[in-house]
## 1
Amino acid sequence: MILDRERFLKLPTALQRHLLRAAVEKRLGNLMDIERRHIEEIMAALHKPAGKVITLPDGLTFAIEYDRYLLGSDPTALSPFPAIETEYQLQVPGTTMLPGWQVVADVIKQEPVVEEGNSYTACLDLDRTGDKLTIRPRRPGDRFQPLGMGQPKKLSEFMIDSKIPRAWRRRVPIVCSSGQIIWVAGWRIDERVKVTEKTQKVLRLEMVRPTE
């Protein structure tokens, strides 16, 4: 269950408690194991920073994100990303099938790059990326140089700055070339592989959900 954080905080306190109890009852089917202290613990956490998680009886959790609250047994299930559990080699050019995803790679001639308005599509300089690409989940110590920035930064810091919900972060697809991150899919490419006037061949990557 998802609650809009801004709208919820504008409600009277008594109504907030009532809605929380109703939401918990809807999830569990009853309030048998829910005590007043559980609701008060949630109430006390409403203004806490994103990332705070309250553990409730029967495997229920209340998770705080930047613009919403999540009530459920598994906050990661509300992530828009299917889980990528290991590293996969991408076929360039070609289509690579992954659990929950397919990655389409095309090599095209240099032309004025048009903003497609699709965060699941990236255009990169093929000479800089090469054609030996992999996709994987994030790893401790990951760093990359976000487009527009003059130096690398920790991927964990980038995700915090970009307000990527904590429950989503391990599911964000990470595309690499020779171990270097070149695209945090859904958010930003690496500055060092961007298309420039000197680019001869453009590598266009698109991540597609097979059900779409």
Note: Helices lie at 5-9, 13-28, 36-45, 126-129, 155-161.
## 2
Amino acid sequence: MGCDSEIKEIKDEVQSDEIDNNEKNIKKEENMGSTLVNRKMPEFKVEAYDAKTGHYTEVSNKDYEGKWTVVCFYPADFTFVCPTEIAAMNAKKPEFDELGVEILAVSTDTKFSHKRFVETEPLLKGLELMMGADSKGDMTRAFGVMIEEAGLALRGRFLFNPDGICVAQEVQAPMVGRNVNEFLRQVKAWQHATKTGEVCPAGWVPGGKTLPVNTDAEKMTGRVGDYITIEEIVKD
């Protein structure tokens, strides 16, 4: 049941001695570029606008140590899909707070742009999110979501557990917004699985049936259908 095992950080493996240093660096970049899942949160420090207080501040990866955290990149202030996503996350903030989840929204705009965006966009009235200003793009590149030719971020959303390990990520092109309700479901599933050692089937919601691979792995192998039906998996 390797795919259901405990989350552990992926370490970069040293290549063969026959490969020169340049080839090693290329392989490392190829291995790390596609996903952050099972890796530590990249180190970062950026200026930010705290929409809750209306003040400028600074945030870094150290501020989120020991916490469930979502880092949510979006392409740009003063665009069209972006304020709908930010407003949706803010509307669900009380639920994220109840789950102990910190939210950091990030784009390559400046902190001044963030402030003006929040003050003028009607959808963002009452916004309480922290908005990272990655104007140099270093953080966006570290998370692997920079659109270099545009200097903007893809729609990248990353969930980190309290150990700082990325357990889920979703990256999309700019044209389509993400679903905050589905993300909340995933957060609840990850927290349940982390706490119990059980695993959550497709579409799991709190109160739904889990798969007790921590106690019945051998019995379940090849017989998952004895534990759960397709109707239970796809029900609304």
Note: The chain has eight helices and nine strands.
